[in-house]
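Per reviewer request, we include the raw input and output of the structure prediction for the construct analysed in the revised manuscript.
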Amino acid sequence: MDYLDKKALHIYSSAASEEYKRQAQDIAGDNGTVVIGADGAMTFEPAADYNGEINFGYQMKDADGDVDSANVTVTVNAVDVAVVPGNDEVTVAEDGSITLNPTGHASAPDGGLEIHHLHGVASTGNAQDIAA
């Protein structure tokens, strides 16, 4: 029988039969998936945008029935994903004005998207008048 605790991603196998050894399995948890190949090799793939430590255990059984356990610790390092701004192209009537929302169509996978500079002027975090 296989059991998966999705929070800690623990894998326990007490049914290490020949049939079990020959079947590939995908075992998914909240923070990733372990794929056990038909040859017994394990591949771990972290969940999208997850970083941190993952621990899971497994058991092995030999031909004469001896069983022992081991643990795997995987550290998933964070990746600094760049901001992807979108270009704006707008039209406004002479003597008119237009409101823009440049952060509305930009993406920042790491979160915390804000205007840093506008037309070479650093943002103060408050309302500013900047000549274009």
